[in-house]
Amino acid sequence: QEQLVESGGGLVQPGGSLSVSCAASGRTFRSFVMGWFRQAPEKEREFVASINYSGSTALYADSVKGRFTISRDNAKNTVSLQMNSLKSEDTAVYYCAANRRTISVSYPSTQDDDYDLWGQGAQVTVSS
Question: Which residues of 30-45 are buried (b: 16+ CB within 10 A; e: fewer)?
Fold first, then answer.
């Protein structure tokens, strides 16, 4: 059974850095587009970043562009999100997601409806 398990996150001061990682089980991970989404209290889930199956194309929300970096290691079945220059508004639960409906797609979707496998979430809190 395929599943996603996030790790990392935690508490960091504004301006600091943090990373979250996602370990995927299943042999076809390398064929999937992967994404990171987040949900803050009393807000809707929003797109953060996505990466295509080969890692050659990544997309970012405007709010995190230049500060966050998504990457993947297909040999280790992992995808990571490095977050720098964190702001209080980055506080949220961060979810890793996989789009298993299409295989080896070059364009990494930014729409959460396109993702059909989700991790349990990792809390990121930015506060002084």
Answer: bbbbbbbbbeeeeeee
